[in-house]
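Hey, I'm writing a tutorial for new members on how sequence and structure tokens pair up, and I'd like a real worked example in the thread rather than a made-up one. If someone can provide the structure for the chain below, I'll link this post from the tutorial.
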Amino acid sequence: MSMINAFITERFIVMTGDYRRVHIEDNEVHFDDAPKLFEINDRVLIGYTGDYAISLKLQAYLDKKDLKTASPAEVARICRRWLNRRAKEDTEQRILIGGLDAKGKPAIIELTHDNDYEPTVINAEAGRIDWRLVYANIDPTPFIEEELGKLEETSPDSIAELARKVNEQVAGEDSFISPACDVGVLICR
């Protein structure tokens, strides 16, 4: 199992990805050696949940492409095309792509097997902090809302700390999520 969390404001994006990989035939067997958050370029992060072999193959495909200036939408198009050609019908895969568009505005794009990887775009709204989470057995929404209410400031550092706390909180209740996670931050220029 995996958990990717993305927070978006009008000024920045924070994403986390845990490390847990669970044996497909015995869920009691797990390893915390599977990074799921990757930097595509200085404007785009990508996080994978689902079939880890598919995640690695797709990331290897992306690594071979020249994506130094790619936007989140371009990365989403490439991922969708690859998944629709390579993933099996029973593949369960969810991807969050966080990034800055051509105008430097933050956006999160979700691709999921539930709708043939049709992109769902979340844009930042002025004065709001929104988030998207894929995929945990525990819904952290009440915890996130409580912690957001306690924030004295909304900065990349404070939201990165909150994202780490969310990962730890979920991992404490969901054995499919590792307590450790990578954190990525993209700031509008």
